Amino acid sequence: MTARADVGYHATRQARWRWTEIAFWILALACALLFPSRYLIMTDIVRLALFALSLDLILGYAGIVSLGHAAFFGIGAYCAGLLALHGIIAEPVIALVVAGLVAMAVGFLTSFLVIRGADLTRLMVTLGIALLLEALAERFSNITGGTDGLQGIEMQPILGLFTFDMFGKVGFFYSLIVLFLLFLLARRIVHSPFGLSLRAIRNNPLRAAAIGIPVNRRLIAIYTLAAFYAGIAGALFTQTTALASLDVFSFERSADLMLVLVIGGTGYLYGGLIGAVVFKMLQEVFSTITPQYWQFWIGLVLVVIVLVGRARLHRWALWAPNLIIRQFGGRRAIVAVPESDAP
Q1: 217: phi then psi, degrees, rounded to nearest 5
Q2: Which of 45, 156, 212, 309 has its CA 20 to 30 A from that of 286?
Q3: What per-residue confidence (pLDDT) applies to 180?
């Protein structure tokens, strides 16, 4: 009974909101005022953050490695584009949910293949699913537009009130609200008994099965949920850019997603969000300085992160704030926290 109480207390403590989390979302909202001319790039960051969050749910919490997560992103993107193009569902919010549900259905059907085998098998299966869907999209070009993509997409106002503008302001707030709501859902899930069982499966599937956790059903459930999140991210891409092409299924999109999680870290929800911000900022800076070799510099940053270690970089980043706090605010300092307790 004492052990169960300790687990419950630990889970409750982890689920509490910290001031750093509140500050993170206030800063995200304040970016609209701080950078009024950068709505398009900020919207791109928000979409990538949601996409990275979807992968972190299966990689960081369930240990499912995927190189084809763009499959569900592409399904959501094309579903939202086709619904808008043919006037089937004109309201963007409803179309967003429908696109996510379609991606979730495909995720559920393919999850039975993904949960079989070990990491290498899962890598190949997920990559094969994405390539297969990309080939099907190219084959049925009369529906998808082929290499030209969907042409003439016109998005209706959100809830009939807010029209998408060319500067991306409405698209940014729309995407940020969707990200925040889905983040709240993901946060509730990972701090629930279901989330704790996923961590047990990630650490040791055999031991988890021995104590009565239905491993396969848990993996199918989280993989299906991650597909829903990725489909929503893809639908946001189409709705905010009025574009859907074969690029949404590309391997490069899945590979960039893995890089985002390498930068931000896996196993805590803010890793994908922070990684998306850093990755896009690095891409923006390096592509401005050296347009032809920006990928080299991002690769160099990744090598440094791997060699030095994310925890050590975190301590170095907190050195100056801790020095100021000790100088003017007593001896209490900010400490580097484990990834599971971040940000």
Answers
A1: -65, -35
A2: 309
A3: 94
Residue 75: Cβ within 10 Å count: 27
On the question of pLDDT at 276 being above 70, the answer is yes
pTM of the model: 0.86
Domain edges within the chain: 28-294
Joined tokens for residue 141: 């070009």
What DSSP string runs through 8-75?
Answer: HHHHHHHHSPPHHHHHHHHHHHHHHHH-TT-HHHHHHHHHHHHHHHHHHHHHTSS----S-THHHHHH
Cis peptide upstream of residue 343 (ω within 30 degrees of 0): yes
DSSP H/E element including 288: helix 270-289
Question: In angstroms, what CA-CA distances link 185 with 88, 231, 332?
Answer: 28, 16, 33
**Tell me, what amino acid is at 60?**
G
Measured CA to CA, the distance from residue 250 to residue 312 in angstroms comes to: 34
